[in-house]
Design brief:
- It is a single chain.
- By secondary structure, this protein is of the alpha/beta class.
- The chain contains 15 helices and 19 strands.
- It has a 12-stranded mixed β-sheet, with helices on both faces. It has a 7-stranded parallel β-sheet with strand order 4-3-2-5-6-7-9, covered by helices on one side.
- Helix 6 crosses helix 13.
- The model has no long low-confidence stretch (mean pLDDT about 95).
Amino acid sequence: MNDAVLTVDQMRAAEQAAMAGGTSEWELMQRAGAGAAQWVMRVAADRPVTVLCGPGNNGGDGYVIADTLQRKGYDVQVVAPVEPKSETSLHARAQFSGDIASDNWLRNPVIVDCLFGYGLDREVGGAFAELLENLSASNCYKIAIDVPSAVHSDSGKVLGPLPQYDLTLALGAWKQAHFLMPAMRSTGARRLVRIGLELADMPACLSARPHFSAPAHDTHKYRRGLLAVVAGAMPGAPLLAAEGAMRAGAGYVKLLSEHSHPDAPAELVIEQGRFAERIADDRISAFLVGPGLGRDDSARERLERVLARKVPTVLDADALHLIDQTMLDGANPAKLCITPHEGELAQLCATFGVSAEHKLERTRALHEATGLTVLAKGPDTVLQSDVMTSFFPRGSSWLSAAGTGDVLAGIAASRLATHGDPARACDEAVWLHHEAARLASPAFSAGDLARAVKPAMAAFL
């Protein structure tokens, strides 16, 4: 089962449901604090620990962590700028028998941040901001409990001084900020501490690693999927996409191009001639349109003709600047997926009249307005379909290179050709893209990445 990713309201509702079912708030806090303490002990390895406790239940978790560590023989310092305010956090403080300091002197090699939890909705200032600034400057191992203390949990927005943490321990469930920039880059390694919440049927999840099967014994190239990659004004991008697609599972990849491609691999079929005839082949399982397409009238006509076929299609790059509501009216949005980066996402939102504050909201609103499956790519990739919002573990930062998005589009289109499910194809493509980047090693080119897709496939068989 995939791990749920919750909003603040969903997390509160899950906790309330647990308490309505007979689990007390104190018991939930004990589970969270004790579970987090196990991770703290792993990384502290008998070194002294400082726990920063805030006034709410996140601070209460901190007191439970401190108490657990102290009982295990650890040298523990608690720093609390203010007194606890909730009944449960007051009870947690009473259980801790060690010293509690109010100053901001951070003396230990491991520091655990429990100042604010998942509900923060205002700027952090005063003594708390000073404490976070000192933590940021401290040469220590930094652990954030639940979400980093200067982060808005739903959007990932930064609301104050934000240290670079080595480890973030999500309590009970993942929160959206764990997978959204800018907060995501400061979380360090992320681990989930389960506390027994019922999280079935949540609308957002952390994508689960896929598994691919080998082709059936009686299959052939067309059953495995025929992908047509539509080229246009520029030859390089569609060729890169096709090279990635050839290695991602489709049985047959052809490039519809009027260009000469002397460096194309021999196994890539390149077709020229009347475009309308080329795309009329009923054996085509999926299209990829956009990389290198151009934005002139010829490009627009090609896109319109492909959409009118109502075949599963990946739209990327130039196609995202050309598509509009009129084209969409002549298509089947349920069979289409788009793969915009941040700038293309903004362009699409302008085209379809979507107004939203941050990436996740824009992705969801664009899907709602168009019916398209939206893979909003970047360091914080988000996938929105009719079924689910999916978040992904971080990929390699070496993917920030020209052409890697073309390879991703090719992978997604190849997977779409094999089974026809846009959301599943995008989900699989992100995992393959990340694994190919890992195998390609540092400082790779888009061509290196495309060639690494083949060994990446082996990791999921």
